[in-house]
TrEMBL record:
Pfam families: Phage_holin_3_6 (PF07332). Residues 1-37 are annotated as: Disordered. Residues 20-29 have a biased composition (Acidic residues). It comes from Qipengyuania gaetbuli. This is Phage holin family protein. Keywords: Membrane, Transmembrane, Transmembrane helix. The keyword Ribonucleoprotein does not apply.
Length: 143
């Protein structure tokens, strides 16, 4: 029975899923893959693409930051203006509050002297900070 089955079967020639026109490659042929030069050129092209994308990203980021910075400056100037007006109102209110106690000229002199003293204090603190910055950037040869 086994002998009959062996006679009926065709000899095995290889995988059954290969097309009929399949011819195996010769071992002496060169492989059909990208060469080292092709890989280097692809790497350079990818690097150039990455650099262009990074430049576009950084430009858009800088444009966004500049736009936001302009808005921040506008809001900062607005806040400075409102605070300045509030300080003027406070100064006028101090003069008006002191008029019944000492008279208009002395009230004006007291408020003016207090503001000049406060301004001199702020100038002194500013000079100290500027001297500290100057000392931080000096090379130490002038000591």
């Amino acid at each position: 029975m086994l002998e009959e089955q062996e006679r009926d079967e065709a000899p095995y020639n290889g995988p059954v899923d290969l097309p009929d026109s399949y011819e195996p490659e010769d071992d002496d042929q060169e492989p059909h893959g990208p060469s080292l030069t092709d890989d280097i050129m692809a790497l350079l092209e990818d690097g150039r693409t990455y650099a262009e994308a990074e430049m576009a990203y950084q430009k858009s980021r800088a444009a966004f930051a500049a736009n936001r910075f302009k808005g921040a400056i506008a809001f900062g100037l607005g806040a400075f203006g409102v605070l300045h007006l509030a300080l003027i109102a406070m100064t006028v209110g101090l003069v008006i509050a002191l008029v019944p106690l000492v008279g208009p000229w002395i009230a004006t002199a007291i408020v003016t002297a207090a503001l000049i003293g406060l301004g001199l204090l702020f100038l002194s603190l500013l000079k100290t900070r500027i001297d500290e910055i100057r000392d931080a950037f000096s090379d130490g040869s002038d000591e």
